[in-house]
UniProtKB/TrEMBL annotation:
NCBIfam families, per the entry: HAD-SF-IIA (TIGR01460)
UniProt keyword list: Magnesium, Metal-binding
Protein name: 4-nitrophenylphosphatase
Organism: Anopheles atroparvus
Co-factor requirement: Mg(2+)
Active site: 47 (nucleophile), 49 (proton donor)
Cofactor note text: Divalent metal ions. Mg(2+) is the most effective.
SUPFAM superfamilies membership: HAD-like (SSF56784)
Length: 334
């Protein structure tokens, strides 16, 4: 449930608050449209935070809705941008909510990064701006992970500032073959400078991004700045473009297409709560898209959003709306 905010969206929200009112709520479809909608997909891929659960607790009805979808023959998969929890923690969380999700059903950003680095036979060190959970996934696969600097930049009045900066940012590190940036609340200018040095000095150094979210809304009283802004700083400072292995990245779209053997994208429904990340990813993959209002996007923000590739085909209040959809659908068949 990671959110992007920008001033343009806010201005448009005020001036044109009903721009997207042609996007239909799934419960406002006619009886025939509801049946057609349910018959239009064989696979449902869903984001997790803000859709299956919230940071503040469970979302009512999700377990029942997912059971109904499975009973109707829909294959389920979950694609999260959140690499702050382990795969085991994901599975425990699903289990605690009464939802069956195997490891193969879950796409985890750190594991996607590990698979990618292994696929290119990365032998050099990987400079990683991310949580320890994320870095441990790389270490556990034998990749050499570098982070830091941990020591503070020297508070000095020395005349030769070039020497001070060079010594701090450019000393005897092993060869770095990839810079990886994901969520890291401890990120600092020093980390970005390190990353910039590695990317500039080795044109073959890979530049990989996980989550691209600009804002991570934890609940009604706390939003956290996500990695999106910092990825943009690095891109602008180096002139390089990150390979995005989180949503809405093209590289992740290729991974997902291959992993789930998708041959008919329009038969996949992508469900999420974020417009740039989830709906943007759905568009990139050619999936149908459903926005849930249970997480990081309000109905007003949806109606005012003006990026066509980030708009859903449908919206719903939460997964619980599928319960009503199936109830109505069964009643209409009787
Ligand atoms: Mg989300």
């Amino acid at each position: 449930m990671f959110r992007t905010i920008n001033r343009c969206v806010w201005v448009n929200r005020v001036e044109n608050s009903m721009e997207n009112n042609n996007i239909k709520h799934i419960l406002q479809l006619s009886k025939e449209e509801k049946r057609k909608f349910l018959d239009s997909f064989d696979m449902l891929m869903s984001d997790c935070d803000g859709v299956v659960w919230n940071f503040t607790g469970p979302i009512a009805g999700v377990d029942k809705a997912l059971q109904l979808l499975r009973a109707d023959g829909k294959k389920l998969a979950f694609i999260s941008n959140n690499g702050m929890r382990t795969m085991e923690e994901y599975q425990k969380k699903f289990q605690s909510l009464g939802i069956v999700a195997q490891e193969d059903d879950i796409v985890h950003p750190a594991l996607t990064t590990v698979h990618y680095l292994k696929s290119v036979n990365m032998q050099d060190a990987v400079y990683c701006i991310a949580t320890e959970v994320f870095k441990d996934y790389l270490r556990n696969e034998g990749l050499q992970v570098m982070d830091g600097p941990k020591e503070r930049f020297p508070d000095t009045r020395e005349e030769n500032q070039v020497r001070v900066y060079s010594e701090y940012f450019d000393h005897k590190d092993p060869k770095v073959g990839a810079v990886v940036i994901d969520i890291d609340v401890n990120l600092s200018l020093a980390h970005l400078m390190k990353a910039k040095c590695y990317l500039e000095r080795n044109p073959n150094c890979l530049f990989i991004a996980g989550a691209t979210d600009h804002i991570i809304p934890l609940g009604s009283s706390m939003d956290v700045i996500g990695p999106g802004y910092f990825i943009e700083i690095l891109e602008r400072a180096t002139g390089r473009t990150a390979l995005v292995l989180g949503k809405p990245g093209k590289a992740l779209a290729q991974v997902v297409q291959k992993r789930f053997h998708i041959t008919a994208p329009k038969r996949v429904l992508f469900v999420g709560d974020m417009l740039p990340q989830d709906m943007g990813f759905g568009s990139r993959c050619g999936f149908q898209k459903l926005l849930m209002l249970s997480g990081g996007t309000s109905k007003d923000a949806l109606m005012a959003h003006n990026e066509p590739d980030q708009l859903p085909d449908y919206y719903a209040d939460s997964f619980a709306d599928f319960i009503e959809l199936y109830n109505e659908s069964i009643r209409s068949e009787e």
